[in-house]
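Changelog-adjacent note: as of this version, every example in the card shows the full chain rather than a window. The one below runs 422 residues end to end.
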Amino acid sequence: MMKTEEYYNQQACYTASPCSTSNRYLPDGTLLSRNFRTKRIDTHIKVDQNGDTIVKNTRRDYVTSHLYMGSFERVNGLESFYRVHTPAGYWDSRIQYHHWYLTDRLGSTVAVIEESGKLLQRNGYFPSGTPYLLPSDDTPIPLGGQAPTLGKATDRLHIGNRYLSHVGLNWHDNTARMHDPLLMRFTSPDPLASKYPDLSPWAHTAANPVNAIDPSGLYVIADQWFQDGIRDGLSTIENNYVEFDMNGNLNNELLNQCQSNSACFLALKELANSELLFISKGASTCIVNGIEKEFKSSYKEGLIGQVLAPGCYFAPSPDENVYVYTSNKLSSINRALNIAHEMYSHAFLFLKSLTNPNINPWHDKGAMVTNIIYPEDGSEPEVIINWSAERNSNLDYQIKSTQKDALKNYVNKILNSPAKLW
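Full-length structure tokens:
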């Protein structure tokens, strides 16, 4: 049996008699607490003074409760303790030291390591996100033996989301919805389904889990290469408001607290608060219209960045998301400049063009011009299509403004660095 919260489409209780998992949420959908209830029968056998065997069965409820307050987690059960979570791992009050996560390219936890270097947990994943346990220092799996329980060191598995394995539920809590990796679908419809009529409202990652992630559907996502480039192009003050979690999701709430009006920061803030998902990566190649294009180490050699956008005739996105690529062969200063070019200019103006068709986000130098030539001999007219000689002034101005900001911020950091390394 499953009960769904009335207001925000979240599952409140799952019951597989006689066990259950129950959740409580704040009005904005934030998880407040989670309780795991297990009913067990304890059997007591004794022999009385007459030599008769007496068997007594006692039914007991064992409840483990988890209370969440931001990064703080309080656990009450057979033992009580608390954890403080960070994007890189967690601190445990029982053993008084930090545990560290090792993640794959999608942000899924593949290993948990304690400070001494001991490997506590090692996971693998099927493409759908279904996890399986691999041998580690703390959980060896003997041949023919029973594998230990998943989530012994951490329950944050596929793309960093909590894995609920209690009573065989085996779902991932993707914040906005629950993901069933065995069925490869969500357990409730997408609240933004009306914006994507060509996709099933229950589909996970547009049915492409190998190349895409869907942590909640409302984030700017950047890999570590891109995160470093974003920070390089922002000022020291602006960087105080830029925070990514272990999956590369940008913290919108923190970002919106900054009132900076620089060209780079304003573009980043608008992208982060839009309803589109912007996935940003450093890469050596990019597939455009089925053709693999290689990125170079400088613009003089060739292509160093690319934006794939829904509906773009020459570089369409493979789904409804916007993909921003920058060459991972660039120097740090050129990376910051290229992010200003691709993300803060092309991607930003593409977002603007969705509500203002007069905005052109691409390098096609003005409007398309169609000429019809009528031959004097009366033969069939010839249609010639070309581009006008006008520059795309809006795009030129945005690139110039954002790259000027990025260069200024990068140079200031170098000049203020104790090492002063260029």
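Structural remarks: The radius of gyration is 27 Å.
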